[in-house]
Amino acid sequence: MKTITIKQPWATLIALGEKKFETRSWQTKHRGPLAIHAGKQIDKESCDYLPIKQALHKHGIESYKDLPTAVVLAVVDLIDCHKVPNEISPAGVEFEKKLEGDEVYFGDFDEGRYAWELANLQVLPEPIPAKGQLSLWEWNNET
CA-CA distance, 76 to 60, in Å (whole number)? Predict the structure, then answer.
């Protein structure tokens, strides 16, 4: 299964259903199932950023120390890959979709980046240990 490694706390925000767009500097033609792998790194400073901190607290995560690392957390469907435009509307960031809630704080929506639209979240019953890789990679969920 195609998999993407995402630094914490963003991988957990996806697994909690709080983050519906993963932003990247590159696009992908892949559509369909995508496993979400939490990398080994945690951006501790971002965990203290109020919108992220509040979203995590809402789900009982009080500290960056509570975030799992080096595990696959969930599977989503990658349904589209939107290029972020160079113009931002008065209502906020818009590309074919309007961002809702705190989503705008959970990604880098700078001009020229790509917003990967995620849907159909399926959280794994237990995180599965796995080594991450750069770019999209194949994960064999039987290991």
Answer: 22
pLDDT tens-digit map of 82-91: 888 765 544 4
Find the Cα–Cα–Cα–Cα dihedral 72, 46, 118, 109, rounded to 10°: -140
- 27 Cβ partners below 8 Å, 6+ apart? 81, 83, 114
For residue 68, whether the previous peptide bond is cis, meaning omega lies within 30 degrees of 0, is no
**CA distances for 110 relative to 16, 25, 89, 94, angstroms:** 24, 9, 13, 11
Task: Report the alpha-carbon distance of residue 20 to residue 103 in Å, rounded.
Answer: 7
| Distances, alpha carbon 90 to alpha carbons 62, 87, 98, in Å | 34, 10, 12
* pTM strictly above 0.85: yes
Q: What is the DSSP string of 35-89?
A: EEEEEEEE-HHHHTSHHHHHHHHHTT--SGGGS--SEEEEEEEEEEEEEPPS--B
